[in-house]
Design goal:
Layout: H1 4-15, H2 25-38, H3 44-70, E1 83-85, H4 93-100, E2 107-108, H5 111-114, H6 130-134, H7 138-143, H8 159-163, H9 178-186, H10 190-204, E3 212-215, H11 223-229, E4 234-239, H12 242-257, H13 266-292, E5 296-300, H14 301-306, H15 308-319, H16 325-336, H17 356-362, H18 364-373, H19 376-379
Parallel strand pairs: 1-3, 1-4, 2-3, 4-5
Helix pairs in contact: 1-3, 2-9, 4-16, 10-11, 12-13, 12-17
């Protein structure tokens, strides 16, 4: 793989542009590329895919700044009271985000625009060519397959928008990059969320303003930074046994990373996800208990499986909004046509060096609160 300076030059040459905006992306880019070059042990497929992805994000950042240069009025767009899904991964949050995206009166991050927000959708006449490209991109690896609800016009996580600042967990889902992962866990994401807001303004520019529905498990690690950029944000949190969560997400990582290296380390993936998500939950608990608990609505994984439309109606009642007949019908159709949760056999936790009892012990503070936040299990 080229070094980070050469990748920057490639993006500039491909676009004919030079202005990346604020320099906050450079540290993450440098650490990421160094980690990929020296730790990831990428195969030929992985080196090509990760190189293309990094240059894609750099190109998009150049294009975003060019659109702002030519249309400074984009800055006047308002992102009002967005709803963020902030949960452990593999808790039904993707299914929930697809259900919420069924509402015609809201705005969400579509799969095909997540990695390529430029040009702004409002400026494209006719079918958008990005829809076909996205179906075969890295985003399809994350959202496709049998483990996650999918659909080219469905809802995508915020990971690609965060990747514009090169502070995104999407990269550690593609490669074993411990130096980058350790840095990401402790770095400041205030600039990242400011740039995400800048990109959301671009995406909604030229269209009627609609409330945003957004989602990424990563947000639990950085809620203070997220709310600095989106001070009126509200949150929906889905819940599931963390022993199932960690095993499931480690399996997803293995599925993806195994395409890009011939030297996958299963124990590393188990430990990475256990450390990352237990820390994320501890930070989310601290955030909620520091005076923000009223901003959260909670849904248990099993409650979503039992009555998904009922849970969305309860969420909307909490938001002070109504579920329209068109929204209800669209949700029912989506749910009927999509499988939920894993249908494959559950892998052996020992494959990843995981012990379910030890995982639950690591999440003991969360399990105590889950019984209060989402008491479905107690009532089952």
């Amino acid at each position: 793989m080229q070094d980070h300076k050469e990748l920057i030059e490639d993006a500039q040459r491909q676009t004919g542009l030079n202005d990346f905006g604020p320099d906050s992306f450079r540290e993450g880019l440098e650490i990421l590329v160094d980690s990929l070059r020296n730790e990831a042990r990428l195969n030929a497929v992985g080196e090509r895919a990760l190189t293309e992805r990094i240059v894609l994000h750099l190109r998009q950042r150049l294009l975003i700044e060019d659109w702002y240069r030519r249309h400074p009025e984009i800055e006047d767009e308002q992102i009002i009271a967005p709803l963020f899904g902030v949960s452990l991964p593999r808790t039904g949050s993707s299914a929930l985000s697809y259900l919420l995206a069924s509402a015609p009166e809201i705005r969400y991050l579509r799969v095909w625009e997540s990695a390529q927000p430029c040009p702004p959708p409002s400026t494209v006449s006719g079918p958008d060519p990005r829809r076909g490209v996205a179906a075969t991109s890295g985003d399809a690896l994350l959202k496709g397959g049998k483990r996650t609800p999918s659909g080219i016009d469905g809802a995508m996580e915020c990971q690609d928008l965060m990747a514009l600042d090169f502070k995104s967990q999407i990269f550690q889902a593609f490669a074993q990059i411990p130096r980058y992962s350790e840095w990401l866990l402790e770095t400041d994401l205030n600039d990242t969320y400011a740039y995400q807001k800048r990109t959301l303004k671009l995406l909604q520019w030229g269209e009627p303003a609609r409330p945003w529905r957004l989602k990424a498990p990563t947000h639990m690690l950085y809620l203070d930074a997220l709310t600095a950029a989106f001070p009126d944000a509200r949150f929906v949190m889905t819940h599931r046994d963390p022993a199932d969560v960690i095993l499931s997400v480690a399996t997803v990582y293995a599925d993806i990373i195994g395409k890009f290296t011939d030297h996958i380390d299963m124990a590393y993936l188990g430990d990475l996800n256990l450390r990352c998500w237990s820390e994320a939950m501890n930070r989310a608990i601290a955030f909620r208990e520091s005076g923000h608990d009223h901003r959260f609505f909670d849904i248990h994984f099993r409650a979503m499986q039992k009555d998904p439309l009922g849970e969305v109606r309860a969420l909307y009642a909490w938001l002070g909004e109504e579920v329209s007949p068109a929204f209800a019908e669209a949700m029912a159709q989506w749910w009927a046509g999509n499988t939920q949760a894993e249908r494959m056999g559950k892998p052996d936790p020992a494959r990843f060096g995981l012990d379910p009892a030890a995982v639950r012990e690591r999440f003991a503070p969360y399990l105590q609160r889950m019984a209060r936040w989402a008491p479905f299990d107690a009532a089952a």
